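Suppose you are handed a protein chain with no further information: no name, no annotation, nothing but its sequence. What can you learn? This example shows the usual starting point.
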Amino acid sequence: MSGNVDRNDRPAPDQVLVDIADYVCDYVVDSAEAYGTARNCLIDTIGCGLLALNFPECTKLLGPLVPGTTVPHGARVPGTDFVLDPVKAAWDIGAMVRWLDFNDTWLAAEWGHPSDNLGAILAVADHVSRQRMANGAPPLTMREVLTAMIKAHEVQGVLALENSFNRVGLDHVVLVKVASVAVATRMLGGTKAQVVDALSQAFVDGQALRTYRHAPNAGSRKSWAAGDATSRAVRLAYITLAGEMGIPGVLTAPQWGFYDVLFSKTTKDQQVKPASERTFRFTQPYGTYVMENILFKISFPAEFHSQTACEAAVQLHPLVKDRLHEIDRIVVRTHESAIRIISKVGPLANAADRDHCLQYIIAVPLIHGDLVAEHYEDAFHVANPMIDTLRAKMEIVEEPRYSREYMEADKRSIANAIQVFFTDGSSTPEVAVEYPIGHRRRREEGIPVLEQKFVGNLRTRFSQQRAEQIFEACKEQGALEAMAVPEFMELFL
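A reasonable first move is to predict its three-dimensional structure. Written in structure tokens, the prediction is:
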């Protein structure tokens, strides 16, 4: 046989795809903690989306692609009167919930925001339910939505535990696309084989680069990238269900597969990784670990690696607010991921640039005692020159223990410590915060604050009475789980 030919023996589907499909189609979720956390995640994520509707830079991107278009039995977008096809509805919901960088977070070798998948889950659930009701069939329930959330969180989070996509230059929204396509295909009635095929389409797709998250190109695309990914997932699910074949060797195909093309080189020095290091690594099976350990952004709309730094800065505010002009230097001990992702100097061009700047996120609460979404706007930055003055005085130092415990499964800390030194030689105590209020270790303290956050976000769109009614409808686990999806969506119209 000539050596100038390829063997055309079609492979069996890659095991990674099969394992995800087995989990999504067959795993029975029986963790009360996972369901309870999913309910809190649901209300927090929708609340973040409602808050984003106050920002024109977000709302200008929402709604039908063709103005005035109506979709029979379409999916609703919370906080609006839009009724869209599920692909665009997923885009809108996904963009809303991510816009202010205020929804949940998962930190491991790769990071991300698993509640981004709610764009696909809610859009598909509402559309499918309304179609069923039009045909005399019962709608989906909110327990089915929570189950899909748990599974999407798990797929995205377990893939992220040992596999760094950012180190090969890819954005973490690839994992949103993968998790969303798996659960969306299943919710739309897909078989296990179709879930495998849809997953292969998600991996073979072109993947987003991280360019828009890093200096000097950070910009607002990072606020809608997850919406784009979850929308693409729904589109790929529909393509698969229309009968499109999958690509079984999408990951492992020599030369042309995901591993060799997109997972083979590190961004730092462009060295080709050995073949043994190009494949995904897994340390545990899929279950409910990710939802149970998810990190909530409760207090501050800021990139999660800075959350504890922001807490520390708020604690230091009373000690420095009257001595800002006497500050000589600010020493920040942090972990490697924060340094790699959000530590930067120089001009900050836009709100998205600022909420990915560790120094900015520290300076604002040192000066003002808090950090809210409006603090990233151009007008606020221009009116507060002290922010850039303090940024220039910051020394960012890696603390090896913080970097190590960030990766330890029984800790997953996100630690930061800040100390302020004055020109007269005096200093504040060092304030260290190792676990943010949204961490599993602080659930008892955090959930009441998360509920207050939800009610506050509701009141940006609804009256106080309506906000309280919505909160009461969402507060009791059993009642929420039994609620029909369309009934739930109508709460937010």
